Amino acid sequence: MSLQQEIQKRRTFGIISHPDAGKTTLTEKLLLFGGAIQEAGAVKSNKIKKGATSDFMEIERQRGISVATSVLAFNYKEHKINILDTPGHKDFAEDTFRTLTAVDSVIVVIDVAKGVEEQTEKLVEVCRMRNIPMIVFINKLDREGKDAFDLLDEVEQKLGLKVTPLSFPIGIGYDFKGIYNIWEKNINLFSGDSRKNIEETIAFNDINSPELEKIISERSAANLRSDLELVYEVYPKFDREAYLNGEQQPVFFGSALNNFGVRELLDCFVEIAPSPRPKASEERIVNPDEPSFTGFVFKIHANMDPNHRDRLAFVKIVSGTFERNKPYLHTRLGKKLKFSSPNAFFAEKKEVVDISYAGDIVGLHDTGNFKIGDTLTEGEMLHFKGIPSFSPEHFRYINNADPLKSKQLEKGIDQLMDEGVAQLFKLDFNGRKVIGTVGALQYEVIQYRLEHEYGAKCSYENFPIYKACWVEAPENPKDPEYLDFLRVKQKFLARDKQNQLVFLADSAFSIEMVKQKYPNLKLHFTSEY
Ligand code: G4P
């Protein structure tokens, strides 16, 4: 098969949702369709159980599972599908943001009863910013939930999407009869049998045919006809170009648990979802069908065995083919590296492979060469654009609790930050280290891992900071306004890992004051500006 054909058949995507909406259940049903797993329950949810924030066993368990489920690949109808796992827990949102740099499209899962939830909003916003094509799956139709039109409105308003339903429910909850598939023009009746794998559908080209009353009640038929009339009137026709440009989002309804509406979603997905897309690097746009290999690291996972400090770096192949034992250029370090046992992923297993194609993910064993965002090529000096760091929400000083182990602590902190567990800031005026995280859970993860993997002990001290703002240096470094800001705020100035200047503001008010006092000063809320 040619490189072009290999690329065309690939679909690399992520499923995003608020915890409990049904991401794990949907993933599992998709894998069942691909024949990649044999039974339900094979895919483990990596969500952190409620109330388990102090349970280190739980953290370890979660890490173990998330290695296994980082990439789930399967074949379906001539397509090679790669699902990238995205943690739903909000404390791991950064991890999900980074994974979204490696997907070519996403499926958004929404609970029919709960509607759009907080985590969905944040994740969809990131996808919208990047124009990632999205398909919405409204789940748990077997339960009582919101009215379908109200939900579509909510999705449009809260998520800022332009939806068009490609299927529509017939009744809901107790009264749920099935789904009319607008895309395929057929009806799928709901039997509530979760063991059923392949659904039987009844073709229905003309919804006004009296045949409809024979399979669903008169009342349901009348409701469906009027609902569909409204759908055709209110929502635009599906437009693939608009979908691919992130300007329109098709919606499917179903019940993942009952494996209902999932086949329809998958069939439409493989047909409309994009194959690997071009990616921007600082130097140029790289197309997937270029013969030379390029790729970037979007995730690093520490080894579960604390005695072996090697890690697995997950590389998304942007172009060409990745081959085992071929030397590739690590463009940040300027050195060539060879990989003798690159891992590919299939279902929940990983195995050594000789060749992988653009769109695929390879896992590379790493002894400390990689950072998130690093680029590999066959020799060309390229740097793929990643996702900027956002301001953390929690800040704490980190102190050394065992003076004999300060080297270990340094190294541990350094490597955990490369993995993207949290952000490190170093205060300018006294050199103290501050760890910024999205969630409180990360502090426990860091403390636990420093101790178990690096033999170092740390303690934390509260640092009441509201937000990190990146400060852009003026053209004239002697600019009096800039110098005055540096002098007045010196206790709140720090450097991030890239040595960029950061202003750690203690309140929204102090940011406002700075803006007023120094109108020409350029403050940014992300690390790339
Ligand atoms: P997540 O990965 O998005 O966090 O969600 P997950 O798939 O774990 O699903 C969350 C809960 O919702 C699970 O129940 C799951 O069985 C249920 N669920 C998923 N899809 C459907 C659906 O279509 N209909 C109904 N009624 N329920 C659904 P749980 O009790 O929390 O977990 P479990 O004990 O079943 O594993």
Fill in the keyword field for this structure.
529 residues, Rossmann fold, 3 domains, 7-stranded mixed sheet, 14 helices, globular, binds guanosine-5',3'-tetraphosphate, GTPase activity
Going by CATH, the homologous superfamily of the largest domain would be P-loop containing nucleotide triphosphate hydrolases
| Structural domains: how many | 3
Quaternary: single chain
Overall shape: it is globular
Mind telling me the C-alpha Rg?
Answer: 25 Å
Number of helical elements? 14
**Content of β-strand:** 25-35%
- The strand count comes to 31
Protein name: Peptide chain release factor 3
Binding site for GTP: 17-24, 85-89, 139-142
Domain Tr-type G: 8-277
Main location: cytoplasm
What does the model show?
With 529 residues, the protein is α+β, with helices and mostly antiparallel strands. The protein has three domains: 3-72 and 88-173 and 236-274, 3-Layer(aba) Sandwich (Rossmann fold); 280-377, Rossmann fold, CATH 3.40.50; 394-524, 2-Layer Sandwich (Alpha-Beta Plaits), CATH 3.30.70. 27% of the residues lie in helices and 28% in strands. It is built from 14 helices and 31 strands. Strands 27-24-26-25-29-30-28-31 form an eight-stranded antiparallel β-sheet. A seven-stranded mixed β-sheet has the order 2-3-1-4-5-11-6, with helices on both faces. The protein has a six-stranded antiparallel β-sheet with strand order 18-17-23-14-15-22. The protein is globular, with a radius of gyration of 25 Å. The model has no long low-confidence stretch (mean pLDDT 89).
